[in-house]
Amino acid sequence: MRIDPSKAYRLLSPRIVVLLTSMNSKHGMNAIPIDFIIPVNYSPPILMVAIQPGGQTYKNIKESREFVINIMNKKYLNEVMKCATRYQEGINKIQQVGLHHYSSQLVRAPRIKEAKAWLECRLVEEIPFKDHTAIFAEIVAAEVSDEIVVDGEVEYSRINPILHITKDYSIEFKAIKKKK
User: Measured between alpha carbons, how far is 95 from 83 in angstroms, rounded to an integer?
Assistant: First the structure.
């Protein structure tokens, strides 16, 4: 069966849903769920996120040139998805949806307290496309919650991230360990 090429990206699923936080020069914070995210380089560590231009997050990133990727546990699915809603400028969306923020290590954008991991990023380059802009950013600081560390190693199954297939479907994460 042939499918519409504009919907072929759905075959590249599941995709992790992260909460991207940003801040502007007036200390206005914003948070949006993103599932168009992928690492593109190891050294330096570069990732790419695709966001729709015109929104507050895009404006914040253009101005500040930095943001935080908050890797959320699936139990916060409702709060994360509420962040997809546009709020009036000046409203703290993060608090409004019931999440909490605190200062990052190296960037001004806030971290989300409830996240299991945080990637602090600085803009390297952007490439505009028709409906999204590809934002390439260097990871300048990374940290994981002590809750997901076992014997000094990250236990990825403890992240239990939000995974997205299409607009109406998400799936459960199940770790499958390699046989030795």
Answer: 10
